[in-house]
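User:
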Amino acid sequence: MNRITLCIGLVTFLAGCGGRQQDSSLVTDAGTVVPAAALYEHGNQTGRTKALAAGILTTLGDFNDMASGVRLSKGAYVVLWEHAGGQGASRLFRATSADQFISFGTDPAWNDRVSSGMLLTAEKITGQVAVTRPGVTIYRDINFAGRSLQLGAGVHNLANVFNDAVTSMRVGPNMRVTMAQHADGSGQRDEFKTGQYGLEIVFVGLRFNDQLSHLKIEQL
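Assistant: Predicted structure:
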């Protein structure tokens, strides 16, 4: 998987848990209520549909390998994967105008080949698996893929080793982690603690994705 780069444009490519499924938020378009992110069976926006819930990686089940397009509300980011559970090749789609439909057309890499997807959120998206390894492991790509770096307790300036490259992480048990946008600890910040089971962060959130340069890690 390539690192996620949030570029202005209709489609941005990138190189990475099935689970619960629920309806995403709704938007109104020409008097019709549609999901904020939905896959369509046909490339002309007809046929069956499958909604993608915000922050929940959805394995498509009976919609597997059937999608020929995706409809997004303004500003929405969706990651689609080739295989179930967020595995295999993936692609990031972004809507730059209200309620866009993106047809996969005749693209053999994606037409009728999508098996899972997720609507990304501004805040971090956590997984369901316990983490027992101490410290923090940061990953370049979503869903713990790509280059990684293991960090222990302390203050870490990532400017020269992993600057603006963190997309997911695993945090060991009984830790306090402070994330900051800039190497000196300034800019956007977020702090969280883990309990006895640690924490998987499948996606650090749109606020911090590829914008994280400072980590303070404390053992509780």
